[in-house]
Amino acid sequence: MRILAVSDVASPRYYDYYQPGYLDEFDLILACGDLKKSYLEFLVTMAHCPLVYVRGNHDEGFLTNPPEGCICAEDDLVVCKGVRILGLGGSYKYKVGTNMYTEKQMRRRIRRLAFKIHRAGGFDILLTHAPARGVNDFDTLPHRGFECFVDLLDKYRPKYFVHGHIHRTYALNIPQRTERGGTTVINAYEYCVIEI
Fold it and tell me: pTM of this prediction?
């Protein structure tokens, strides 16, 4: 299975300079937030495969006007093409706004999903907007990761943890892929191709 993961900025390859067939190789698209509705709808239309998304901290409009044809995994565990995807969008709370959470609020969201995770036997992909604390995050409040994501990774050991929010243009040497305890961590900024 080939997966296209996208986040934060529209990729010119898959939007501005799109050529017919560019998306034919993908079986699934994962969107990690802060992308325009029109971009997600374009991708799901041109790719002819499911697109599963979570909201980013700038996706206030998705609550009332979600992208058509896309599957929202927010606060849910969805199974798509046999892959179990746990979705937790939003970022660390750094100002008043929707899709921003304190550590306590994010932990509460995870607790509400505990039975669903248990019933599914875990999950294969943790799909978030924010990173985990100490894994591809920054110390500044707007770009801090969540400790509870670290706990999820340690407890369930999913194959992949796919997030956005940390633009690779913020600094030199921000990795796109890292490993943590058997989980491949992917910063999907712009786009990344994953093969399962």
Answer: 0.96
